[in-house]
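Collaborator request, handled under Task 6.
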Amino acid sequence: MQDLSVRPLTPDRWGDFETLFGPSGACYGCWCTHFRIPTSQRKTMDGAAKKRFIEERVAAGPPPGLLGYVGERPVAWVQVGPRSELPQWNSPKTVSRPLDPADAEDRSVWAVSCFFMNSHDRGKGYSHRMLSEAMNFAKASGARLLEGCPIERTKQSKSVGLYVGSQRIFETAGFSEIAKRKDGRPLMRLVL
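Structure tokens returned to the collaborator:
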């Protein structure tokens, strides 16, 4: 793996986020809004509206995640922050819903909800480093618990379905399974 430097996504790094996500906004024009906006609202938004939403969120602060760089080139993204900012992640209908409903509003319970790398940068081990940096960022920001809801396995190591992360990287980082509401999608937790 090439040297990867990791920085919080602040307004001055917005151009790097745009570069990484490309003109289509990463996965199907999502712009990493999938968990941030309730489905009913998100379905009415086009890619430009989703991009505007996340740009305004970045401008408002604090950083909603971290960017990874090789040199000056942005190559990786991880969304990490309080569960309370992710209504879709907390929905009672999702596999990522909290064990205790109060965790959805507890600002000290955080989630690692999304990873993104372009196809040519996948499979290089960047997810491990991005998760490690997300753990450090969450702890430094006052989180007491950090949760993820990764996928157990995919047919290909470079699958776009790994946007939630792989179970293996969460296990390697010390997370433990606390619930499994669907085969292949454990809810995992790390006490910080």
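The cover message to the collaborator said: "The CA atoms of residues 141 and 157 lie 31 Å apart. The chain has one domain: 5-191. Please let us know whether this matches your experimental observations."
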